[in-house]
Write a structure and sequence with these properties.
The chain is mainly alpha-helical. About 80% of the residues lie in helices and about 0% in strands. The protein has two domains: about 50 residues, Homeodomain-like (Arc Repressor Mutant, subunit A), CATH 1.10.10.60; about 140 residues, Tetracycline Repressor, domain 2 (Orthogonal Bundle). The termini are far apart.
């Protein structure tokens, strides 16, 4: 098998696992489910991954990189104004919520619990720390007062908005509300 074929096989396994983890609880997904959906044997799955937790870690890394880290870096590195960037970051957070349901949060929570019971939760903390550092640098470069504290508050606001969106999506369909929300977040950061 060539490196390209091996990479494609691994990618298909991760794609199947991602669809499963985002559609039902982590504990309800089996290696057999992943193998079946990917079209590969259970042995093939184990050739690329040691365990279900290893697959879940790879899925989480992939999701964070594709859905959060890459778009966040693109926004920060763009030619937009600071205010436009803040608005786009809020849109990014809300867009993730729009594209996923509450099961996505459950996946993260269950995975964190599984990793913690195995003393492996550093993985999630490390991944989140990278995002925090990216946001901290962005705020500091834009002369935001108390960037360390405001980074934590801003990230907490974004996480909270995702939960609020999942609970009350009709509220976020009002453009006036979302515009005011973005303006208030911007004013908080600049203040």
């Amino acid at each position: 098998m060539t490196d390209k074929q091996a990479s494609k096989t691994r990618e298909k396994i991760l794609d199947a696992a991602t669809r499963l983890f985002l559609s039902k609880p982590y504990s309800k997904v089996s290696i057999d489910d992943i193998a079946s959906l990917s079209g590969y044997s259970k042995g093939a799955v184990f050739h690329y991954f040691k365990s279900k937790i290893d697959i879940a870690r790879a899925v989480l890394s992939l999701l964070i990189e594709r859905l959060v880290a890459i778009p966040l870096r693109q926004i920060i590195q763009s030619n937009m104004t600071f205010k436009e960037k803040i608005f786009k970051i809020v849109d990014l957070s809300l867009g993730f919520s729009l594209g996923h349901d509450f099961k996505s949060l459950l996946f993260l929570g269950e995975l964190y619990y599984e990793l913690k019971t195995r003393n492996q939760e550093r993985f999630i903390k490390k991944t989140y720390r990278v995002l925090l550092n990216t946001m901290y640098s962005f705020l500091k470069e834009n002369n935001i007062k108390n960037p360390a504290v405001k980074t934590i508050i801003f990230m907490s606001i974004l996480d909270g908005l995702s939960i609020e969106y999942m609970l009350y999506p009709e509220l976020f369909k009002k453009k006036d509300f979302v515009s005011k929300l973005k303006e208030e977040i911007y004013n908080f950061l600049k203040g």
